[in-house]
Design a protein that fits this description.
It contains seven helices and seven strands, in the order H-E-E-H-H-H-E-E-E-H-E-E-H-H. By secondary structure, it is α+β, with helices and mostly antiparallel strands. A hairpin with a 2-residue loop joins strand 4 and strand 5.
């Protein structure tokens, strides 16, 4: 402005923000692709703030736990209350070790879902430190079906072993492809004064 208040000149300042907008768009696209991948694979994502003890679950994890999105209370205590009583001490010990050593947290344990049923989960987490503070970020997979299959297989093996070792009025022999005895059990062995060790390994 001059002495009479008239405009003498105008100064413009221009900055190119197109690159920033491109970066934001690419970041948003990447985030959406990641969310889709996690949803398709039923991967739960969790985050534990080590300074506030706040815990965040994504929608997939909440649904896996039989909860509506936003229903999880969002604290470490709320998480711990859902861990099976027989597993909680081990879970806490492993978490403490991972935090102290900043190592990978990887374990399996049981959790109580919204309807009270028990679910097996495979959990992994890693310490992350940035301008937002120190956190542990990880993923969760429901492995209940796998654990149930393994438990059923173990039960069948136990029944089979009990039957073989107590086979009445006879004996049971198993061979490998070289016709070598790999297992020998039954009452008849005891009657002829043989132990499994006398037979197993022989041809």
């Amino acid at each position: 402005f001059d002495e009479e208040g008239a405009v003498e000149s105008v100064v413009f300042s221009l900055s190119d923000i197109s690159s920033k907008r491109d970066q934001q768009r690419e970041l948003e696209r990447t985030r959406r692709r990641l969310e889709l991948a996690l949803e398709v694979t039923d991967t739960g994502v969790w985050e534990w703030d080590l300074e506030t003890d706040d815990v965040v679950w994504n929608d997939t994890l909440e649904r896996a736990m039989g909860l509506e999105p936003g229903e999880f209370e969002g604290t470490f205590d709320a998480f711990a209350d859902r861990v099976h009583p027989d597993d909680i001490d081990r879970v806490n010990e492993q978490l403490e070790h991972a935090v102290e050593t900043e190592s990978l947290y990887q374990t399996e344990f049981r959790m109580r879902t919204g309807d009270g049923s028990i679910q097996w989960g495979e959990v992994r987490g890693q310490i992350v430190q940035d301008r937002d503070g120190k956190r542990m970020v990880g993923v969760y997979h429901d492995i209940t079906e796998r654990e149930e299959r393994e438990a059923e297989l173990q039960s069948v093996k136990l029944q089979y072993q009990t039957l073989v070792e107590n086979f009445p009025d006879g004996a049971v022999f198993l061979f490998d492809t070289d016709l070598r005895y790999v297992r020998a059990r039954g009452e008849e062995l005891r009657r002829v004064r043989l132990s499994p060790a006398d037979v197993e390994g022989a041809t």
